[in-house]
Give the backbone structure.
Amino acid sequence: MSKEAMFTMKLEPELRDAFMAEAEASHRPASQVVRELMREFIERQRQAREYDAFLRAKVDTARAQIASGQYASDVDVEARFAARRAALRAKAGGDA
């Protein structure tokens, strides 16, 4: 990848000195460390956007289902799964 762009930033001298010392201690150029940090930041942001979009779609789907009457109350769900648990207990007891 071509490295033709220049990036300038202002920061506290103490932060710069500590960063440069750590980069040197890890035997890596500071510019390489900054590029890695930038790539990690970009990836985290991309993942966060994808998750937000996924979650938004799930919420929109759920809202549409509720609006169209395609939902079950907590009482209905609990009754359905109580029946499933009872059937599984009976099956487990019958096989033993």
About this structure: The radius of gyration is 28 Å. The CA atoms of residues 13 and 24 lie 16 Å apart. The chain has a mean pLDDT of 93. The first helix runs from residue 13 to 25.
